[in-house]
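Prepilin leader peptidase/N-methyltransferase: structure tokens wanted.
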Amino acid sequence: MIYFWFILGLVVGSFLNVCIYRLPREESIIWPSSHCPRCGKDLRPLDLIPLISFFLLRGRCRSCGEKISPRYPLVELLTGCGFVGVFILSGGEFVPLIFQSVFLSALIVIFFVDLEHSVIPDSASYLGILAGLLYNFLFGWPVFLSALGGALLGYLILYLISLAGRLYYKKDVLGDGDLYLAVVLGAWLGWGGVLAAIFLSYLLAALVLLTLLLSGRVKFGQYVPFGPALAAGGLITLFFGPQLIGFYLEKFWL
Ligand SMILES: [Zn+2]
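Answer:
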């Protein structure tokens, strides 16, 4: 069953690639069928096998030889491995398995779209918020209230940070999309989880920014999207949240 879930993850990853390409361009994700963005030729079934086609084609379009971004096999592999992680996390239980796979998929799409286009598609956020609240509703009122609280808390924290940024730097340090993404994280992870996720995001963002600044890849004061850090923080919290929160409390509070 876990192997099946891995293969399904690869296939879903292939679909997520379509979403990552089309959502920021406001194109339909179901029509038309997949084609090369340069020559427009439809991809043949043999070109659509996740992971394998990229290597068979040696990373180039069969018709025009246009280079295919390594993001395609990367997203497929990432989703496949993520699905395996979710399978282990949920113990193979059907409802958590399905919902957490949706959550993982939404975060992967948001991560890559924001990385490339500095925008978070509202449709992915809305789906994420609704699915998260619905999922936690299935576990009764205390869990649901934690999810509602987490959604509000996530929004509030990033709103305050963005307000502080506007007062202090006189410019936007966060986009509206980041605020909605924090709501998504809260709706899934509850109020404790969203705190952990935001904390982790800033830790990750600081590490990555420092590396980019030191290596001269970005300049000081340049706008860098925060969504990828939030999405990554959310994913780490999904998989390791309870352990991380436990570790933190033990080290610093108890
Ligand atoms: Zn082509």
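The chain has eight helices and no strands. Residues 176-214 form the longest helix (39 residues).

Cheers.
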